[in-house]
Amino acid sequence: MEPWRKNLWSLWTAQVLAMIGMSAVVPFLPLFIRQLGVSDPVAAHHWSGYVFSAPFLTAIVAQPIWGALADRYSRKTMVVRAVFGIAVALALMGFSRSVEELLVWRLLQGAISGFISAALGFIVAETPQAHRGYAIGVLQTSQSVGAVVGPFLGGVISQYAGMRTVFWTMSGLSIVSGLLVIGFVHERNRGQSQAGGRTSAVENLRMAWQIPGFAVALACIVLSQMGTVMPSPQMPFFLEHIGVPDSQLQIATGVVVGITGLSTLVAAPIIGKQVDRRGARAVVQWSALVATVALIGQAIADSIVAIVVVRAILGIALAGLVPALNAYLSTRIPDGRQSGMMSLASSAMLLGNLVAPPIGGWIAAHVGLRPMFIAAALCAASIPPLLWWVRRRRQVQHAA
After folding, report:
1. pLDDT tens column, 34-56
2. Which domains does the chain have, with CATH numbers?
3. Which residue, of 116, 122, 201, 353, is most buried by count of CB atoms within 10 Å of its CB?
4. Neighbouring residues of 116: CB distance < 8 A, sequence distance ≥ 6
């Protein structure tokens, strides 16, 4: 097996375990917040948004710094650091005695983890350019497996052993993931550390504005994440709203969240190959349109069956949206800066993850749950016009 393929599948396995660990706890944070004493419905909506967004606040700042250090020293070291950071944060969350304490540990998670960003930078640096779309698509499926298995596993453990046990079990799973990276992932391109060069987060940010189309792609990532993440913290409340009984709420939440990951898992490798063949722009445009339709479908759904169907369609759209944007960015990055520049893409995702849940929580609390899905659909729907406007402006500039 070619070295880049061996690294890809080894890292894929490790990321599956890490993503199961993270995905197992996220859908149940609103219920855990209730367990910690937040009983007022409006306060629960707001706290769900804050706790869900907390890691993204600190990670937006931390990940570009970790990415620059990865290019300077070792990308594998940053992957190992990130996955053990997840393990520490999850363990501490399990000991939370108040919602404020849970918020602190979620902030810590964002500062010391960043596994997805580290793994993405490693794969971009170690994979030949002709295969990057495929490799990024395959790596995306590891997140999808986690999104499928994690919520279901977390639901079962939570139902029968308690929510705190979920945090501690998933912390142990993350430790296993880190050991797999140490033993089976091998770094060949150590970038600036061998060349003797220097990179920094500030230099990478400056370069992002200079590379044509790079900043626009980052903006599209923000919008795509806002659209797809906004409903997530409110999903248990929406399932309650459409009539799911309390006795089935945890399992139902796991199934609804997990079906999106399952459809992404099936579609991501196929769409990844289409990115290599047809180009990222076309894949992004069609994926954004499908995501818009799926989010509108959630707004009008009135049964769990309908929710499952439209969430599966949303998963197909997610298989092409952010991976295609990442593939687009990866072809425009100078050698030796892959981790640092791709960490900006991860920061864009985190920015969307940060601002979307509080916005969704406010809309859900003060306007309604269904209008929240419409707001999410508008975010996804704005991506194709933005890409068209940028392309049109570039054509006018070339003509002039």
Report:
1. 889 888 888 887 888 788 878 87
2. 3-190+198-399 (1.20.1250.20)
3. 122
4. 15, 143, 346
